[in-house]
Specification:
The chain has ten helices and 17 strands. By secondary structure, the chain is α/β, with parallel strands linked by helices. The chain folds into two domains: 182 residues, Rossmann fold (3-Layer(aba) Sandwich), CATH 3.40.50.2300; 116 residues, Response regulator (Rossmann fold, 3-Layer(aba) Sandwich), CATH 3.40.50. α2 crosses α10 and α7 packs across α8. It starts with a strand and ends with a strand.
Length: 346
C-alpha cells in the first residue's frame, strides 16, 4: 500500500506569518486526481485506521490521497486547515469534525468550487456535505452500548454519559436514542442516567472528570460513552481508584487500547465498528459520487466492495445518510478484529 502523504500544519505559523498550507500553487485538478482526507485530528489510531481504509479505496480507484490535520482536537485549527485549502480547489474530500457547525461555511465554499465532500464519524450541518457515512443507525449504536452495559452490570444502577462537547451531532443523537431505550425497553430500564459530563476527547481530562464523578457519586455504577479517547482513560481511573467490579466504563473503544483492561477484569465488554472499512466506505463513495458513478438520492442502494449493499436516506435535518452498520462486541478472548462477536442486525 502506498504511504499516505501526511502534511501537518503549524497553527502558530499560519496565525503569525500567514504561511500557506502548500508551497506553490496550482489547482487540484492538475495531474493525478487527489482525495483529501481531513480527520478531526491526526495521531489517534482510530483515524489512522480509517485513513488506511481510505487509502485502499484510493489505490483501487487510481487516486493519490493527501492527509491533513492538526495534532490535537482543535476545532479552530481544523477549520483553518480547510480555509487554507480553498484556494487549491480540492475536488474530493473525506472529513469529520468535532463541531457540526463551525466548518460549514468553508465546506460550502469548497462545494461551490465543485468539490464532493463526504463526512464520516460525525456529520456537519446542512449544506456542508454531499453525504454522511454513519457507523450505524443511532438506535443500533445505543443498543450496542446498553447491551455492553448490561454485560458489565446486569443489575444496572446510576450511570453518567460522557461526551466531548455539547455540539457533536453523533453524541447528541446517540444520547437521544439511549434516553428513549431506557424509557421504553424493560431490560434497559435498570439504568438511570444522572448526568452528562464533557471531556473534550482528551484522555487526561477524561481521567480527571471520571475520578471526580466517582468521588461525587459513591453509588455510581458506570460510565457510557461513544468516545474511543475517553474509555481507556476512564477505565484507568476506575482501576487506579480501586473500583474494579464496582464501576464500569463501556460504549465504544478501540480494542488495542482496551486489551489490558479486559485482561485485568476492569471491563467485560465494549463495542465498536471497523474504522478501516469506515474510511474505505467514505472514500469509495466520495470518489464514485464525484465521478458521476454514484447518485446521491434518498433510497438509492449502492453495492460497496468488501462491505455490501447500503441504502442512502434523508434525515429530518436534511442531511443524506448511509450506514456502515458493522457493529462488533469485544470481550476477553474476543478482543481482536478477527474474533470479535458480531452484533446481530435488527
Amino acid at each position: 500500500m502506498k504511504k499516505t502523504r501526511i502534511i501537518f500544519m503549524s497553527l502558530l505559523l499560519v496565525a503569525v506569518v500567514g504561511l500557506p498550507l502548500f508551497a506553490g500553487g496550482g489547482q487540484e485538478t492538475e495531474g493525478k486526481e487527489k482525495l483529501y482526507y481531513v480527520p478531526k485530528f491526526t495521531g489517534f489510531i482510530f483515524f489512522e485506521l480509517a485513513g488506511q481504509g481510505a487509502q485502499q479505496a484510493c489505490d483501487e480507484l487510481g487516486l493519490e490521497m493527501v492527509t491533513l490535520g492538526t495534532t490535537q482536537n482543535d476545532v479552530e485549527g481544523y477549520v483553518q486547515i480547510l480555509q487554507n485549502l480553498v484556494p487549491q480547489k480540492p475536488q474530493i474530500m473525506v472529513t469529520t469534525s468535532s463541531d457540526a457547525n463551525a466548518p460549514v461555511p468553508v465546506l460550502k465554499k469548497m462545494k461551490a468550487n465543485g468539490a464532493t465532500i463526504v463526512t464520516f464519524d460525525s456529520p456537519v450541518g446542512k449544506g456542508g456535505q454531499d453525504l454522511y457515512v454513519n457507523m450505524a443507525p443511532y438506535k443500533i449504536q445505543a443498543i450496542a452500548e446498553l447491551e455492553s452495559a448490561l454485560y458489565n452490570n446486569p443489575k444496572g444502577g446510576k450511570v453518567i454519559w460522557l461526551a466531548p462537547s455539547p455540539n457533536i451531532t453523533l453524541f447528541n443523537k446517540v444520547k437521544e436514542a439511549l434516553d428513549e431505550l431506557v424509557t421504553t425497553v424493560p431490560k434497559y430500564q435498570v439504568f438511570e442516567f444522572i448526568d452528562t459530563l464533557y471531556m473534550e476527547d482528551d484522555p487526561d481530562k477524561s481521567y480527571s472528570v471520571a475520578t471526580s464523578a466517582m468521588e461525587a457519586h459513591p453509588d455510581l455504577v458506570g460510565f457510557i460513552t461513544s468516545s474511543g479517547m475517553a474509555n481507556p482513560a476512564v477505565n484507568k481511573a476506575i482501576q487506579d481508584t480501586g473500583r474494579i467490579g464496582k464501576v464500569f466504563s463501556t460504549g465504544m473503544a478501540l480494542p488495542s487500547t482496551m486489551e489490558t483492561f479486559l485482561e485485568d477484569g476492569v471491563i467485560k465488554q465494549f463495542a465498536l465498528w471497523s474504522p478501516y472499512w469506515f474510511g474505505y466506505m467514505a472514500a469509495y463513495l466520495a470518489i464514485g459520487i464525484h465521478r458521476g458513478e454514484i447518485e446521491v438520492r434518498d433510497g438509492n442502494v449502492v453495492d460497496i466492495p468488501n462491505i455490501g449493499k447500503r441504502e442512502m436516506y434523508m434525515t429530518k435535518d436534511e442531511v443524506m445518510y448511509t450506514d456502515l452498520n458493522m457493529m462488533l462486541f469485544f470481550r476477553k478472548d474476543h478482543e481482536t478484529w478477527t474474533n470479535a462477536i458480531p452484533m446481530p442486525l435488527e
